[in-house]
Amino acid sequence: MATTTTELEALLMQRSLTDPELQAAADKAPDFRILPDATVIKIGGQSVIDRGRSAVYPLIDEIVAARKAHQLLIGTGAGTRARHLYSIAAELNLPAGVLSQLGASVADQNAAMLGQLLAKHGISQVSGAGLSAVPLYLAEVNAVIFSGMPPYGLWTPTAPEGVIPPYRTDAGCFLVAEQFGCKAMIYVKDENGLYDANPKTAKDATFIPKISVDEMKARGLHDSILEFPMLDLLKAARHIDQVQVVNGLVPGNLTRALNGEHVGTIITAR
Fold it and tell me: Is 192:228 a contact under the CB 8 Å cutoff?
């Protein structure tokens, strides 16, 4: 290990940070898992939170019960209000970085609402630098809430087409799971998982219980259940090699997924 570290330090002092030999040496360095026992849950904005009490309250009860046995990082989506803001901002010819800030404000609102509903159970909302306190919250109450939008703001990478921020809440929650080295990433939506067509409009849509990223792209399904860039993040990840999409409107689905059951659609990196 000492030799590898010495070699890496020498290369860092002598080479460009994009040098292939430097990249290979850096890749050999072990990657420490910060929260290996925690699971990140992404609660959909449009699919769950925007439905109001009927969808949110049962899920809150399930989260409160599940946190007795599981460490939970609960991320929030943005949903319908963000789409409305994107529409107005795009019509005003504002850039992707501004749209990213607007979308983040809605995800923040959803996190704040979940935080208030779960406050009596001791589950708090954190934001920005507050993520550094996540281990303390997990040690005390086994759960914490955060806004799912990655904080790129004006620094957001632009999409190949249009001005809609490509890295939104699906990507943001995944990045938290990956960078903390969590054990699992679960997306809570309003469908059973991935289908070969939109089940809301196509009555003959076929459910797909398990699929790889490459298969999704080959079949043209890469933007049908999760944000497209999130799939590339999954392929490049070191810790999270699969994610599961479950229907949060079905009582017990989230708990079953947390217990390791195959409930919805599992998307694998390879």
Answer: no
- Cα distance between residue 27 and residue 16, in whole Å: 15
DSSP label at residue 49: G
Tokens (6 digits) for 208? 């797909």
Reported residue count of the chain is: 270
**Cα–Cα distance measured from residue 170 to residue 29, given in angstroms and rounded to the nearest whole number:** 28
- Quickly tell me which residue has 């196509």 as its tokens: 202
By DSSP bridging, strand 265-268 and strand 210-212 are parallel
Contact yes or no for 46/79 (Cβ under 8 A): yes
Q: Two tokens at 130? A: 């507050």
* Residue 53 CA from chain centroid, whole number: 23
The pLDDT tens digits of the residues spanning 147-193 come to: 999 999 999 998 888 999 999 999 999 999 999 999 999 999 999 99
Taking CA atoms, 155 is separated from 83, 127, 150, 159, 265, in Å, by 20, 18, 11, 12, 32
- Helical segments of 126-220, H only: 134-141, 169-179, 213-218
The three-class DSSP label of residue 184 is strand
* 19, 11 contact by CB (below 8 A): yes
Q: What share of the chain is helix, strand, coil (3-state, %, to 5)?
A: 45, 15, 40
DSSP H or E run through 43: strand 38-43
Q: Can you read off the two tokens belonging to residue 243?
A: 């994610």
| Residue 159 tokens, joined | 């999409």
Residues 76-89: tens digit of each pLDDT: 999 999 999 999 99
Contacts with 105 (C-beta within 8 Å, 6 or more apart), sequence order: 85
**Helix/strand/coil for 40:** strand
0.90 exceeded by pTM: yes
List the structure tokens of 82.
């963000």
